[in-house]
Amino acid sequence: xxxxxxxxxxxxxxxxxxxxxxxxxxxxxxxxxxxxxxxxxxxxxxxxxxxxxxxxxxxxxxxxxxxxxxxxxxxxxxxxxxxxxxxxxxxxxxxxxxxxxxxxxxxxxxxxxxxxxxxxxxxxxxxxxxxxxxxxxxxxxxxxxxxxxxxxxxxxxxxxxxxxxxxxxxxxxxxxxxxxxxxxxxxxxxxxxxxxxxxxxxxxxxxxxxxxxxxxxxxxxxxxxxxxxxxxxxxxxxxxxxxxxxxxxxxxxxxxxxxxxxxxxxxxxxxxxxxxxxxxxxxxxxxxxxxxxxxxxxxxxxxxxxxxxxxxxxxxxxxxxxxxxxxxxxxxxxxxxxxxxxxxxxxxxxxxxxxxxxxxxxxxxxxxxxxxxxxxxxxxxxxxxxxxxxxxxxxxxxxxxxxxxxxxxxxxxxxxxxxxxxxxxxxxxxxxxxxxxxxxxxxxxxxxxxxxxxxxxxxxxxxxxxxxxxxxxxxxxxxxxxxxxxxxxxxxxxxxxxxxxxxxxxxxxxxxxxxxxxxxxxxxxxxxxxxxxxxxxxxxxxxxxxxxxxxxxxxxxxxxxxxxxxxxxxxxxxxxxxxxxxxxxxxxxxxxxxxxxxxxxxxxxxxxxxxxxxxxxxxxxxxxxxxxxxxxxxxxxxxxxxxxxxxxxxxxxxxxxxxxxxxxxxxxxxxxxxxxxxxxxxxxxxxxxxxxxxxxxxxxxxxxxxxxxxxxxxxxxxxxxxxxxxxxxxxxxxxxxxxxxxxxxxxxxxxxxxxxxxxxxxxxxxxxxxxxxxx
Length: 775
Description:
The chain is an alpha+beta fold. Helices cover 29% and strands 21% of the residues. It has 20 helices and 27 strands. The strands form 7 sheets. Strands 3-5-4-6-8-7 form a 6-stranded mixed β-sheet, sandwiched between helices. Strands 12-18-17-14-15 form a 5-stranded mixed β-sheet, with no helix packed on it. A 5-stranded mixed β-sheet has the order 20-27-25-22-23. It is globular, with a radius of gyration of 30 Å. Mean pLDDT is 90; it is low at 1-23.
């Protein structure tokens, strides 16, 4: 069943994807997104006995369960391997059935205690649960299902489809135990009395129960110390052995430890059960998330090079081992590897990446699920360097069209990978105070087109790439204007003769018209261009336009809605994960030496466009695309000259971490700081690129940093977004940060309330902003 999704921005600093479909599909929210559903364990949480007015209580209860679930090992260590979805299902009445008290209520899934005559056993209609989940989420999004019942009395149940629990204080422990069954395929480790009946006549299939008493035949024998007696009578916690009493049998069946969560609530799973749960996680999550190049057979010219990369899911406190080999010989480690073909003979060679989870919590991996590998065949041929250049020396487009397409071609040997940087430029050096209505024949990036820059990547076999440059449809009559676009820094190719092209914008006005930003639809489009660096999607464009036009002729309503719509772009997940992410990256990496802000607009724009490339909020797997872009961006960022100069790889892990924390202004607790240092393992330097990325990312995503820089970034984005300049650029009267500091102090004074501070109102009604588009 197809779903129709719409991204809704909120006035909170987040956005939620609400999805609707026909039949029994329900509203849902992905509350934890750690990657592609195809390679994550997908946990689905539903509620029963929550009325429509109790939906916030359900959301709070679900969040409590999530926090408790991922506080327990091994789910804590492997929490990044999970995505969590919450499906909001309202019941007509609150609570659950209590047949023993003749209490019956009307709930969505018929939750009832005293199931099968056992008071603590809660049953739900599993068919309804399964149908609701199937109608709401794709098959890849439903590996584990949990139903929370809005009743505080102790109770729960487990099964192949769903784990069920009440909201009793022990509920999280119940769920962990039941997921040990339904997800981990573990057996109970307690004995009688029945039900169910004890049956010790055959070897159980569960990995934590056995009838074998010979040391060599015990499933978990590798965990048992040679000095531990078999059977085992020790009462010391966490000593693997052979303890009698399991699988509902007091005698005849044995468990691995004296006590565990599969026997009693409130204790750890212990070693053998933890090992099985980790193996089950890896049954659904490959250690190899993705790899490049996508083609399995590649041709590299003699003397050339080829970049390879592999991304992995990330455990909380340790790293996966990533080893590269060339023709069977170890050649490198880490998530990226560059093959230098100069050291290889012409002909066919094999490149392999092998990934392994070295955790000490798994000793037995018979199916090798903790390992993954990929192999490429590389043909090293004669040297033939390709050429990249523009397909033409000039391009034209009429104002009023969304953008102009500029083509870059690659000729010669296209079997390898080529990258080349591109950038738009005004034809002459201009200052920000140049009026947009001045007729000069020169297009200005602040007025006529959107600055577009980045890196084109030609994969093997690709011969052309298109750069789309958005155009601004102003209302000035200014004739034909032009700007430039250039190519620089080709890698894997040489630059051809046409490395610069002229783009002509043909005017669509003969006289000055009405300022287009007074039109709600034009106003909204410009926000997509200025804040999200893309054209609006149809549904989003309609939605935000209607927020303004719904005010009709009510001027006060119109003003407030234009402000709220404008702010929603800054607060959206799409901008927070692109523009604000870039801001925090510079803050953590380089601090704000000599300025109250950590970066300039010419640094901000290309990096933001790099993360946002190919992203359209609410459409397709957009959140995964942003995450993939972030990872690639940070890998590139830590290899830039400025970063390596500020943070030489000769620095110790502690020095590297402390410098980033100092830059960011974050002072975490000692255990968190030590965890950051531990990303480098036992290394005495910080040459490990992947570890540098992980440390930088963890600091960037630190909630303290996010909170403390939020207002500063908010004010800076008024200048970058609305005025397309730095706070210290002309026409700023004092050419410094007086204006920036004024608005920051005012926003702080009003506790971040942009309406009361009148900050956004001032910018979008300013002459400088309005003169970008018309008289």
